[in-house]
Every structure is written in C-alpha cells, then in structure tokens.
Amino acid sequence: MGAREQLGIPFQQVTSMNQNLHQANHVSRRAMLKGTVVTAGGMAVANWGALFHSQTIAAEAKRSGKRCIMLYMEGGASQIDTFDMKPGRPTGGPFRPIKTNVDGIQICEYLPKMARHADKLAIIRSMRTKSVDHGIGGYHMHTCYPSSEKFPHAEIGAMIAKYCENPESDLPSFIKMGSPGCTAGSGYLGPNYEPFTLGTDGQLPGFVNPGVPLAVQDRRAELLKSFEERFAKQRPAEPFASHRESELRTIRLMRARKAFDVEDQWNKARDRYGNTPFGRGCFTALKLAEAGVPFVEIGQVGYDSHNDNFPVHKANLSVLDPAWSSLLQDLHDRGMLKDTLVVWTSEFGRTPAINGQGGRDHFGRAWTVVLAGGGIKGGQLYGASDRDGFEVAEKMVDEGAYFATIYKALGVNHRAKHYLGTRPIWATPEGSKPIEELLA
Amino acid sequence: MGETAGRHGCEVLRSDVVPGSRRAKIEGAQVISESRSPTPPKSFLGGLPSFAALILLVAFGGNRVGAASLSETIDREIKAGWEREKLNVPARSSDSVFLRRIYLDLVGMIPSYEETTSFLADTDPQKRAKLIDTLLADSRYGRRQAQVFDLAMLTRDHKLVDGPVGYRNRGRFREWLAKQFAANEPYDRIAAKVLQAEEDGSQLYFAVYGNPDEMVAGVSRFFLGTQIQCAQCHNHPFENWTQKDYHGMAAFFARTVSVEVKEKPEIANVKGKQYLVGEKTVGEAFFSIDKIDPKTKKKETIPIPPKFLLGEVLNEPATPKDFVEPKLKPGELPPKPAFSRREKFVEWLIGKDNPFFAKATANRVWAQFMGRGFVHPVDDFGSSSTPSHPKLLTAIETELVAHKFDLKWLIREIVNSQAYQAADLGEVKEALPKFFERAPVRPLSVEELAASLPIAMGLGGDAALKTEPNKQMLEYLGKPTDGQGRFQGSLTEHLFFHNGDGFRGMCRPNKGNLAEKLLTGTEDWSQKVDRMFLSVLNRPPAGEEREQFAQYLGADGKDPKQATQRIEDALWVLVSSSEFRFNK
Amino acid sequence: MSDFSSAKVLHTLPWNSAYITSLAFIGNDQVAASNKNGDILIWNLAVPEGKTPEPVRRLTGHTNEINAILATPDSKTLISVSNDRTVKYWDATSDKGEPGSVLLNDGFLPKGVTEKVDKVPPPPPPIEVKVIVQKPIRDLTNHAEWVQGLAQTPDGKTLVTGDDQGVIIVWDLPAGKERRRWQATQWIASLGISPNGREVAASQHIPYRDKPGKESFLPEFHLWDVESGQSKLDLKKELGKDFPREAMSAVVYSRDGKWLASAHGKLQTEKNQGKILLLDPATGKKIRELAGHPVGTNDVAFHPDGKHLISCGRDQMIKIWNLEDGKLVRDFGKFADRGVWIGALSISPDGRRLAAADRAGQIVIYSLAV
User: Fold this and answer.
1) B467 and B451 Cβ atoms separated by less than 8 Å
2) What residue spans define the domains of chain B?
3) What is the mean pLDDT of residues B424-447?
4) pTM (2 d.p.)
5) How many domains does chain A have?
6) CA A310, CA A304: separation in Å to the nearest integer?
7) Is A138 contained in some domain?
8) Which residues span the domain enclosing A391?
9) CA–CA separation, B7 vs B99, rounded Å?
C-alpha cells in the first residue's frame, strides 16, 4: 500500500471510550489518506496526481517546512506607479519616486513604509506575460499555464500546500482570503489541496461554530463515515471522493478554528497594518503562517483603473503600504522571514500610455512583481524596462521563470511531475528555469 | 418493494431491448400510434396507410434517419462509440437511481416520499417512459428549464443578477422563460424573443449584457456555441476569428440600448428591476475599416458595417446624413428605427443558413442531460474541438431542425435512450465521461437543493416551490464547480450543513413533516428508516443500512428529546452525504 | 436671451501638450489654462476678426499636475493649486517677464495601449509660440499633500483650499496668509465657500475603485463652519438616498448664496452617475436635481445672470441648465459613452463667453451671445 504503512506508522491506540470515539474521528491527514485509499474496496480511488496508488505523497515529497504568503493585486497593478517609476517621461504620471534604504533603488512616494524594507525585496521589472485579460491572466499567473489548454491545472497555492504542508496539522494548507483571482483550485492535485476561501479580512464565516455538542458531532460523523464507505464501493468518480474529503477537512477545520480568531491581537496591530480588511487579512496571514499554514493568499481588489488611474492607485497604495510593510516587519521580528516567501503580484501590469479617461489599460509586455523573504536575495532590482516602459530592456522573465524561482525558493521541485489518468503534467512548462540571481 | 443492492449490475443492457420497442416490432399496425415519439417521422411515413408504413419500417430498418427514432439512433451511435473505444457497456440504472435522476433533470427537485413509493411499486414495464411524459407535462418543467437556461445565459456572478436583490432581478426573466418552456415554444422562437426583448419580462438579457461587447460575446457563446470575445482587441490567439469578425458582429448590437423602468425601491427590491430594450436609428461599432469609395476610388475610413459570422455583410439602407438623434428623458427608449440591425441579426440567427445555431443547441441540450456536450465545454466549438460523436451530433442537429426546434421532443428522445438511463455504478472515475460510458455525476445546483430539501424533509411541494435560495446559500452553494463542470469541494459548503440554522430548522418535528412522522409514528425503527431513506434518498435502505440506522435512532430508548436529536443526526447524515449532494 | 440658441464657437485654441486641467477667465478678454505638467498659459482673446488668439504668457513654477486655477474678482491675481502640494499666486495682468517660448503640440494623443502595442508615435512638426515667461509672486507650502480643492468668496477676500490629507485651510486671500485650518476625515475631493465666507462645503472621499467593504469608506460631504472648524451639517444624512456613491467633482455656491451646486463625478466606478444636485445651503436639503452627464460631470459654473448653470462632463458634452425648473436649455457636443472628457470650464465675468477644455488638447471659446 502506502509508504506510510511501510514506515510502520500505527493508527492511534487509545483506551477510554470517549477518547476512542474522538480519536476514531480524529482523522489526522496521514490516517485519512490511508483511509481513503484503503476503504474503496481495494479499488484505485481517484488518487489525484499519482499514476497508481503505489506512489504516495510521502514517497515523493520532502517536507521543506517553508511557507509562502501571496499578496495578489486584483485588476492589474500599475508598475509605473509603484516600482518602475519613469520620472520626467510622458508616461511618468504625477507620482514621484523616493529613495529607499537601498542605494540605487527608488520606488513610489506612496509606498513610504515599503521604502524602508527595500533591502528585503527583489524587484523584478521585466515580467513579460501573454494573457492580458482578467480571467485568463489570473489563471495564467496562478497556474503557470494558459487556460486555453483546457486542463485542470493546479494553482500555485495547491502545489506549495502539497510539498510544504504539515500533514499533522488540522488547518487547511491552502488558504485564500478575498477575491479569488482564479478559480482553478487544486486541479489535478486533488481535493486535499483545494483552497479554503475566506473574506479579505480573514474572518471565518459565521457558522463555523459547532451547532451541536461534541459528542453528537462525533457520533453522527461516525454514522456518516460508514454510510459514505458503503456508497463509495463501485463509485470511484472524483466528485464523490472530493466531497467526502472536504467533509473530513471540515471537521478538522472546526477543530482548528481558533487559529483564525485574531481579534484580541488585532486590536493592537491595527494601527500598524491599517484598519482595513486587507490589513487585517495580512495580519491573519501572519498568524496562520505562525501556526504552520504553508500557503496563504490575500487579494486586494480595485486595481483595474481604466479611468482615474492615479487617485485609484493612490488610495490603494495607502492600504497596501502599511499592511505589506508590517507583515514583513513582523515576520522579520519573529525570525520567520527566512522561511517565509512573500510574493507581490497581479494578473498583468498597466500601459505606460495614459488614456483619454486618465487611466491606464492592461499591459503584459513589461511589468513588475516583487519577491521578499525566504530564499530570496533582497535589496536588488532584477531586469528593466525601457525608458518609457513600453518593452523589456533586459533580462526578460516569463511565467515559467517566475514560477520556477518561487518553487525553488521554497524547496519545491519546479519540474515536479504528476499524472492525470495517464497524461503527465509538470509544475512548470518545459524549459522553465529558476533565476539564480534572485535566490539567496 | 423496491430493489436491493444485489440487483445492481445484473441487468446488462442489450441494444435490442429498448423500453417499448419490442412491443413496437411485434404489434404491427399499432406501432405508429404507440411509438414513443409523439410526432411520427412525417417526412417518410406521413399519409401512407399504416400497414404499408409498417412494411416500409421493417424494410428500411433503423439506418434511415426518418425511420429509426432519435432515441434509437442515439443508442446505436453511443454503443458504436463504446466499441470503438473498447469500453465496458454500462448496466441499466436501477429504478430508484433513474427516478431521482429524471425528477431532478426534468422538474428540478427530488420526488416526494409518495411519488417515490408509488413509482417503485409500479410494475408497468413502460413506467419510465410514462413518467417521462408525466414530468414533461408537469408545471415544474418550465420552471426548471428556465432556471437552467437563465443560469447558462446570464451566469451566476454578473453583478446585476448576483446576490440577494440581484437574484430577484432574475425572477421576471425566469417567469417569462418558464412560460415559454411550459408552452413548448419552439426553441428558435425563444432565442428570437430573448434577443428581440419585446415581451414583458424577456428584457433582462440586454440589461445584463449592457454594451455591444458584452452582447456579442454573450450571444456568440450561448447561441452560436463559439467563444469570439478574445478577438475583440486582436485576432483570436487560438481560433480563426479576426478582429473584423468580432467587430462585424458587434456592429449588429451597436444601436441596442436598455433602460431601467423607474419603480419604487420597495417594489424593485422585492420583484426585481424591470427593463426595456430599444434600438437607436444611428450608432456604429468602435472599429473602423478602410474602404475604397467606388465613385471616387479614394480610400476612406468608415466604421465597420455589420457582418454575419462566416457570412455576408448586412445590406442596410444608409442613415440620412442630417439625422438628429432625439433628446430622450431618462428611462425613455429611442423611437423604433425604420431599419433594425438587431432584427436582421435575429433573422440570420435562426435562419436555415446559419451554420452554428442548430448545432450549438443540439450540443447544449445533449450536455444538459448527458453531463457534457459532444464538444466540451458546451460553448466552445472551434478548430481545436472535435466532437466526440460527430455522426450523432449531426443526426441530432438534423432531427432538431426537422422537428422545428421542438425541445420537449428532443428531451424526450434523449432521456428515453438507454444511454441516458445508464447506471451510476462502474469503475469510471471521471465525473463527465467523454463517451458516456457511465451516467454523469454533477452537483445539484443551489436551486435544486433549495427545492429538494423541503421535499426531503416532508415539508410539501408548495414549500419546495416557494423556497428560493437565500443569500448564504447562494454564496456558499452557488458555484460548486470551476465553471467547466469540475466539482470543487469547498469547506464552507460543509460548514453550512454542519452548523447553519437553516437546515436544522427543517429537522425539527413540526406540522406533519418527516421529523414529526419519525418521532411520533407507531412503526418500529426499521420501518421508520425505510421512510427516511425513501424520503431523502428516494430509495429503500440496504439491509445493513437499515440495521445500522435503526440501532442509531433507538440508542437512547424512548426519550423524545434524545430521539429528536438522533433523528436530526440521521437526517443530517443523509443530507450531508455525497449521494444526496450529486445527481448521478 | 436665455435660451442661448445663438451661442456658437468663437475660437478653438489648441494646446496638445498634456491634458488641460482647469480654466479661468481673467477679465472678459483673457483666459488662463493649466495642465497636467504644471504649466499655465494665458491667451489674449481680443484679437481682430478672423484671427485665432495665441498664448501670450506662460507661468512656470509648478512641478506637477495643476488641479485648479481661479482669477480674483479684480482680475489682478491668478491662484493655482497643484499635486506638487503648493498654492501659488501669479500676477494676472503684468506682461513683464523673460522672453521664452512654448511648444503647443509636444504631447501625444492620449490613447489606450493594448496588447497590440502602439508606441509613442513620432512627434508632429512642432508648433512653437513666443511667450513671456513669468514666475509666481507667492509660493505657499502650507499643504503637505495634493491640493485639489480651491474656491474664493465673490468679494475676493477669502480663499479656501483642501488637500488629500483632509486638511482644509482658509486664507486671507490678498495677504496670502493662512487664517485657520482644520482636519476633515478622508481626502478633500472638491470644495466651495459661501459668499459671506463663513461656511465651507467640502466633498470628501478616498478614491477606491472597489470600496474595501465597509460603510466607513463611503464618501462624506459636510458643511463646515469656518470659525469653529466644526461640521455644521452632514449632507449624507440630509440627502439620504440622494447621496451618491462617489465624491463630487465640483462644489460651487451661487453668488447670492441661494444655491449650492454639487456635481457628481469625481470618480467613475458605476454607470449612470453625474447628477448635479442643487441644494439649499441653509438646510442641506435638495431643492432640485439636474440630470447632469451620464458617466460623470467634471465641472460646473453658475452663469452671472443668476438663472443658469453650465456643466461639462465625461460624456463629451457641455450643457446649460435653467436653475428654476432644472431643465436642459441647450447643449454642445457629441455624446460618447467612453469619450474624451470635457474636463474644465470657465464663464467670463460678463457672462458673454464660455471657455471649455477637453482631453484631446483643445480649448474651445464659445460666444454665449447674451
């Protein structure tokens, strides 16, 4: 069967009745995996990504213990108005650059707190990507593949969750806050790595608190389990298994729900992060990272400024700056930054030319993403756009290189291979290479 | 009564045993009047005396489109597909699986306890065909089709029709659609009416798709089955559509405008907003082409004229040069133009020269019942998508046109086929098997859940009809797939059933509902378990299930409080199960 | 007279450098225009029949976009506010200064660039005009953020400005000295001052395109008491469901203090905005509503006849309204949904001329023939 059994890890032995009930339903992920593979009467239950159920996750994965927090700017953040300033040029706009704590790096005056963290940042100004509309761009920047391939690709969060998770933890290993930006989910990696989605501010929905006492929860869960096992015989179709596994994950989430309750600490932190849902989301992400969640994505909406680009960005940056900088600071102060990669990204950038409604439109030919923290060599500018920002001038970075770099920083094989049926699929397309200059 | 698990899989499907057909072959002259298809193939047999018709039927057999019913053609082609792909032939679905499936697919909710027991007990070998006819004539059929088509046309998450008040905006449109489907209005007429937007309640389409770009993308996707929107800003990256194709089509919609009818918020918030759709006399697409003026031979730049996709440029009268657009009050429509581009578009859309419409419709209706189209995604006909069963798609398309887009006829043919009635068991792991070698598995829509829960809990058919999904249900259960039919298990969905008040309320014994019957009834627990399973899952429990559940329910003896809780637990188990959540 | 039916275009003054942000008549014969680059040009309109006026003076000093300019009632001073966070005073009448020149067409036509890349086109042959270059006579740095609000009392004694930190400053206008200031919540989108100088109406917001979810991020609109620096009236409460979702692009008191006009359209995030509300400044209640410009109104001005209001909008139109019944009297322009904005307007003190600037790089002078 699985490598877990080969390693001789026993199912929990318990004594008292109550504990028995409880433990019987305390399906740690390890046991759950074992369970779902076994109970389907020996049949190959949809075991996503693996060709045969003889390959298990433990065999392939080496837990790296690293984490990633992704700040996703939905709508397309303007690179010329944030990290790739063009002062004095007709495409420059009214924002002015300011110095940072790194000589030679200047960023927008409306990211003053981030300017004090430039030594942690690798600013990639030569992104060049192909999918320049919201749906397809969001998909491409989350999965590394274009949606036109019509294949159930896995989002970056699911990939990182799989290779960096702690299987003992009851917390979901892929958490999304706020606007999704992409609905691909875990794709071929299977329901174990579907995201758990919350509002931007990271608060749990109201009905996460159990409505019935624990004893009732346990006994009915037991009844459901055997009912589902009967049903699953001769019914290996993926949706059923996905549904069952989500049920088990839900029980564990309910048990771990306290990790999301950051109210008391938030009261002290809100002045630093900014009293906004995005600020609170970033703070919750810090707490979840502390609790060992390997991937948290927080979305900030409202960057699609086809008109009124400058007031809109000025407002958005006033929310982004305190939240992002406080997150970096807190990770640093807790000694977590070296193991936590913080990614700042978007679907695409915005045009250098300003249109007749004071706005900028979608643009993929030369834009900017920023990496910080775990595995990254900070304090650098990588790549450049030309004088007015219309094209990449040096060191172009495409989707594959961007993903490969992130995976390598987190200790994930960027060419990790999986199967859907018999069709192989790699985490990044052929030829994708991590950018060594960016890695510490 | 009912079936036990042991019978699953023992009825191997034989292609000559089609419900009804054996009688048809034996009973000769009666064949025409007893044929499942209400419209006997007119073109071939109409007018001939019935005996002669029978000779012709027997003589020419099943290969002529006019002779075999569409159901038979479907089964023949699907079977050929299995043989080609070397797939196992699926068994026939059990009665209870078929029963639940057909109710959900045709009337959008599960059958009640009474409907279930009555069908399962019926020994008539024609009962499935008869049930199909009954449900197609049921008043809930129109409502169900309207939900499906509304969601497919307008999607779940457009701002105008999303969320609590937005959801009510769909109400008028759905009511109007339901009337069309209930009256079995030919589908090409329905499509025309949606785009003409003149009938009361039909106008929402152009309110949701409020500018020419949204209109052309929506119409292409839904009615033509082709995704043209990528060609708006540049020639389509994957297909042959150019910007000229896109904007040539958008030009048909450049003059269409929609206005909101001013209403008191108290009314609009309850009944939904009302819209009117009109058309201006002038207006062009925001795209220019170069043209050589035939007289002066000079090159001039003109706004792109309307051009049918893969077709001709529209022949339209020139707008008078000094035309002055009338000043309109807010909420006022422009006066009806002398020449309507949109009307011409509608003519072309449903005309016989349109290569897209019938095929897209055939694919879409097939996909609705069989889980996926021959082309998948259903609205993505293009150079890279080869139909899985090209002959069958063509046959359905041809027959659909011959039957003048009679939807009930088409649906009847599909759901009477063995392919549709295939079992839910087998080793196939895919949710929507490409060669239909197992019945598709799809999550119930939130509308189906909202209606089925009251039925399952014995609250009655009226309650089911009145229950609309509330804001929470829409949020947590509204989008269970990734948009291409792939189910994505979400934790919030389970949290909703675990801890939400809505479901718990239905489990409290009250007014003759299921919980009360279970609590106060005099039968023993085993019989109560039967009732529970028949009500919620529309099947009797298997032996082990009956034992296990009866034990669970009786574990605290006669204490009503404990019993009530245990009843709620058991109901929770059944409703939370995969079996309930999906249509299989 | 008041049907403006014989109004017509007098001159079209091209200035395609960077989009024009504000206009002000200086007296009846000169018009000043400011732009995104921080330049101000002044044209002399008193030219012989058939000639097109050319700019005669250029005011330099601002280093970023100028948001608003005005001329004092005695036509002696021009005042401007900018994203460079300064307020500057200029001599409106002097023609003394350094000889210099200005290129009238060194901007490129603002055009969206999609994936099918449109590079900056090669520049057309330059149109250069000789001008006198002048510097500010006062350079006031009292604000610490972009200054968007600018208004004066009709007697020219009091000036008020507002910035993106929410700071409102009331000034002794002739002296150029700050009299008092106070802090409002959010950023000042636009403001006006009552004729008696005692009350400031300020439209406040944070220009999110998607509000981050909470009520507190909706715009505000207050009538502030100048002496105490306190809010007298919260117009969100007074207006109820008439209170729009985005801030006002312009807030203007009529000369007689009877009306407070507020034009909706500082930010466009939804369809069909752009109403102009005529409020009673004493109570904050809506007297009447003008349909305005769908998509957004950019600027409004009361006509000196006291009976009309002129507005310009994002729909490429200029509209003249009758204040008594709120009806549209006449309009200019061709409607477009995503059009080239008419960003600014100014009416000459005698009410006979109108200047309007669009984002395609031209100022159109209309004769209102009243």
Assistant:
1) yes
2) 140-224+227-350, 443-583
3) 91
4) 0.82
5) 1
6) 11
7) yes
8) 67-204+254-438
9) 16
DSSP string, C259-270: -EEEEE-SS--S
Rounded Cα–Cα distance for residues A185 and A191 (Å): 9
Name every residue whose Cβ is closer than 8 Å to that of residue B322 and which is 6 or more positions away in sequence: none
- Chain C residues in contact with A132 by the CB 8 A cut-off are 114-115
Residue C327 to residue A98: CA distance in whole angstroms? 50
Q: Indicate the SS3 state at residue B505.
A: helix
Comparing CA positions, the residue from A370, A277, A95, A362 lying closest to residue C208 is A277
Please state the rounded mean pLDDT for residues A328-333.
97
Cα separation, B203 vs B193, whole angstroms: 9
Contact at 8 Å (CB) between A265 and A287? yes
CA B477 to chain CA centroid, Å, is 18
**B191-197: which pairs have CB atoms within 8 A and are 24 or more residues apart?**
B191/B223, B191/B346, B191/B349, B191/B350, B191/B357, B192/B346, B192/B349, B192/B350, B194/B153, B195/B219, B195/B223, B195/B342, B195/B345, B195/B346, B195/B349, B196/B342, B196/B343, B196/B346, B197/B258, B197/B277
Shortest Cα distance from A318 to chain B (angstroms)?
27
A362 touches C: beta carbon within 8 Å: yes
* Pairing outcome for strands A67-73 and A295-300: parallel
Cβ count within 10 A of residue C11: 19
What are C331's strand-pairing partners?
A: C319
DSSP string, B410-423: HHHHHHTSTTTTB-
Q: CA dist C333 to B17, C25, C322, Å?
A: 74, 21, 18
Provide, as residue numbers in chain B, all residues whose Cβ is less than 8 Å from the Cβ of A247: 494, 576
What kind and span of H or E run contains B146? helix B139-154
Note the residue count of chain C. Answer: 370
With a CB cutoff of 8 Å and minimum separation 6, the contacts of C80 are C22, C34, C40, C59, C62, C66, C68, C69, C87, C88, C90, C150
Q: What is the DSSP string of A348-402?
A: -EE-SS--TTS---EE-SSEEEEEEETTB--SEEE-EE-TTSSSEEES-B-HHHH
Distance of CA C176 to the CA centre of its chain: 21
What are B216-230's pLDDT values in tens digits? 999 999 999 988 877
Interface of C with A in 191-250 (CB under 8 A): 206-210, 212-214
CB-CB contact of A89 with A385 (8 Å): no
Number of Cβ within a 10 Å radius of residue C331? 18
Chain A residues in contact with B494 (beta carbon < 8 A): 246-247, 250
**Does some domain include residue A58?**
no
Name the residue type at position B127: K
Instruction: Tell me the C-alpha to C-alpha distance, in Å, between residue A116 and each of A110, A119, A157, A345.
Output: 12, 8, 28, 20
The full set of domain ranges for chain C reads 8-367
Candidate from B233, B265, B330 with C-beta closest to C116:
B233
- Per residue in B308-357, pLDDT (tens digit) is 988 889 988 887 777 777 877 777 888 888 899 999 999 999 998 888 99
In a domain, A419, yes or no: yes
Give the architecture-level CATH label for domain C8-367: 7 Propeller (2.130)
Q: Which residue positions in chain C have pLDDT lower than 70?
A: 1-2, 108-123, 212-216, 270-272, 337-338, 370
Domain assignment of residue A62, yes or no: no
Tell me if chain C has a CB within 8 Å of the CB of A303. yes
Mean pLDDT of B160-179: 86
Residue A142 phi, psi (nearest 5): -105, -25
On average, the pLDDT of chain B sits at: 84
Q: How many CA atoms lie within 13 A of B407 on its CB side?
A: 26
State the amino acid at position B38 in one-letter form.
Answer: P
- Here the ipTM equals 0.90
A378-415 pLDDT, tens digit each:
999 999 999 999 999 999 999 999 999 999 999 999 99
CATH number at residue A263: 3.40.720
DSSP-based three-state secondary structure for B240: coil
Alpha helices in B285-436 (DSSP H): 341-350, 357-370, 390-402, 407-415
